[in-house]
Amino acid sequence: MRPKEEQIKAILSGDPFRWAVEQLADHETMDEKRYSDFINVTPEEAEEFVKEHGFPEDAVCDETKGPPFIREDRLCIESLNNRWDVYYFERGHYNQFTHHTSYEEARREIINRMIQSAKIALNSRFRYAHPELKLPLPDLME
Q1: Ramachandran category for residue 88: left, alpha or beta (phi over 0 → left; psi -120 to 50 → alpha)
Q2: Residue 40: how many CB atoms within 10 A of its CB?
């Protein structure tokens, strides 16, 4: 397993699947791999990393970093009227909008979304390659 800092960077990159594929041996496929084969960091470890290093600008627009505040195709965190909003901005539309009472809570929401996205990306091929296991779909309607 790769170092935890590398795992966290992969989760925060927005494309952990590419990172995982680069680790496969010539005879391996993602059909036989799961999230847990590549990542064993906790949300708390990821949060500590983000506290120290911030989010990558190409994946998350964070108002606290200041301009440029580029929203397009990114998760966003911004303050408005004494609250922190988290959303995904795509083609001029706000998606998956949530409100939070603190920056820390909003930051945690983004980290949890990115971990959930990594789990989906890294587990999906295994799930479809093994229908006999009848693995459940992730609950995305929370």
Answers
A1: beta
A2: 12
